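My main concern about presentation is that the manuscript never shows what a single data entry looks like. In essence, backbone conformation is discretised, so a fold becomes a row of integers matching the chain in length. An entry of this sort, consisting of the sequence and the corresponding backbone structure tokens, reads as follows:
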Amino acid sequence: MSAGWNTIESDAGVFTYLLENLGVKDVQFEELLTLEVDELRQLRQVTLLLTSYPTLNIKLCACVLCCRLADRSPQGSPVYGVIFLFKYPTGEKPSDVPKDGRFDHEAAENIFFAAQTIQNACGTQALLSVLLNKDGEVEIGDQLREFKEFTGAFPSELRGEALSNSELIRDVHNSFARSSPFIDETQRTATEDDDVYHFIAYTSVNDVLYEIDGLQVAPISHGECTPSDFPAKVIPVLQRRIERYPAHEIRFNLLAMVRDLRIRARDVGDREGEEREERKRTEWLWENALRRHNFVGFVGEALKGVVAGKVREGGGAYDKWIEEAKGKTRARIEERRKKGVGGEED
């Protein structure tokens, strides 16, 4: 029986350093935070993370990403695979036939495919579903290679149990979870009222485009796909999946696993690009450090100070301040309701 796993964010900095802490070399996740055409044209790399916000059109995002990835030069960084985050349909019944593609039961034994046997592990499991199928193309490190070799002959269910019980993988995963003094997510089970989100992976293995989801019975084949064809072929698959959801559902996230962009910048003598990537790494380290810190005590003391200041003002300043805050909160809720945005993400 494994110890618990916490949820982690779908974030390029989190996933990049998670892999690095597992011993993986020269791999990162790249992100696109805006969808302006001019900004897309300025991008020197074509491997992207796509983030959806309430004001963005996810179908337009997918089209832009498809065109950009499909147009990449042969010298561009390889796209090893993508990690897709989406709201999981908890009321959906299991089926022997996937809604898109076909189950490849033979591949379940021939590629790295692990059944998900514990909650909250799907993010790291999706990363490994790409990474451990790229051994040879990517330096995965001695410890992950040992894990892959140890589980190589296991059926998918036992492979998933081995992953869930790996202290190395679990401890690195949990080191990127947000600190919370209120909820122990390793013990908390999702209820019907929760918005549940799930990570899955898409990658090209043996010239086949696979959807690798530990909650399915086997990898899902989406047809022939060489690694060079992957960017163009994965986008239509993602578009079809997104189209299953209502038009107002736009909470999706897409991460691309690529070669370390600093290496390509050094290879072509792009000093500015290398410095930009180094600054990004510094920012990621800072953000990851903040995630581990519990700010409840600090926030509590700051709030006490603000309240004390309002009380000292007198003349009903405190009560007026509270009513103004309530009004702003009601206005935000009403605005979200008009936009068709429901509950918050986990």
About this structure: The longest strand covers residues 79-87. The radius of gyration is 22 Å. The chain has a mean pLDDT of 80. The beta strands are 27-30, 50-51, 79-87, 102-103, 197-205, 208-212, 220-224, 253-259.
